[in-house]
Amino acid sequence: MIAKQGARIGFWDVATVRVHPSGKITVLCGSHSHGQAHGTTYAQIVADRLGCDIDDIDIVEGDTDRIPYGMGTYASRSLSVVGSAIAKGTDRIVAKGSRLAARMLECADADIVFERGRFVVQGTDRAVTFKEVASMAYRGADYPEGFELGLDETVFHDPDSYNFPSAVHLCTVLVDPDTGKVKLRDYFAVDDVGLVINPMVVEGQIHGGLVQGIGQALMEDCGYDPETGQFLTATFMDYCMPRADDLPSFQLESQETLCPTNPLGVKGAGESGTIGAPVAVTNAVVDALWHLGIRHIDMPLTPLRVWQAIQGAEAA
User: Which domains does the chain have, with CATH numbers?
Assistant: First the structure.
């Protein structure tokens, strides 16, 4: 649906939730995890909605011989799009399993409720477990008329609109006027990424984004020889990246406002630090030098550039 707003590529993605006769579950996703902990957060969604043990869930990504064709991982989209497909798939599994549970318990479909991994006849203690229903779904001996055997659902989720995370970033810097060296003393951030599935994962992603954004602001520079065009920073011996001793201990807080454009209520988290940090850090440096008449310094704010800006301002 977002593509109708002018994009030339779809923003949909896909997931297959496959329940095996044993009750164990395989989730095949169109996304790919390269450090975002999809295997943890996706499994948490399934375990929460199906009331099963997280160790019974296998998340499969990146194997194109097995997974359905998807749009991949980019732009802080995986949880809101693929996670939503997984959530819809689990809901369909529950709805289908409820029909079979009603047959097993000899009651009307409407009398079945699913809670904590069991299909229960409302108002009674009569119930069957999720694993018992999964086994019966593949046994094929007794099932409702029109019921398709198996518990295997594939969902293509095409979001109606984007999600909009928000954040406030604040930092304090110390600038050495003799060397131009910038020291980051304090960094505070408050993020709203919607429903937080796993606080540790979100905090880790924000930490990583902050480090990347601070590196962009203060030190990461692609240098070229002006005469020959030769790239001069082609290795990490020449291209500076932030290390632990360049950074303070981040102070993070969160606010949780559910997103209305997906069934999970989640928003993107992976890019928050990379967006907020460059602006917060560069503005802090300019604020520290405001009394000198400095209003702008191009990133990265290396000691040389800051020192040159100070010298130029004092000369003027």
Answer: 2-157 (3.30.365.10), 166-315 (3.30.365.10)
